[in-house]
Amino acid sequence: MTIEDNYFGDYLSADPSDPTNKESIQFYTNGSTAPSEGVTIRGNTFSSEDYRQNILIFNELY
Length: 62
What we know:
The chain has 62 residues and is an all-beta fold. The protein has one domain (2-58). 0% of the residues lie in helices and 35% in strands. The chain is built from no helices and six strands. The protein has a two-stranded parallel ribbon with strand order 1-4. Strands 2-5 form a two-stranded parallel ribbon. A two-stranded parallel ribbon has the order 3-6. 0% of the residues are buried.
């Protein structure tokens, strides 16, 4: 999977006071401790005026 040359910004929320789901890109495994493989993220622009985790990648082990 390649995520390339995108703009992530101008975020709108149904509830601006809700601090959850502040990731632009998120990968996680479901029921597996194996890592995500074959993922390329390049050339993207991330813009945010508030706290945000732009890229979050994790598996069930952590």
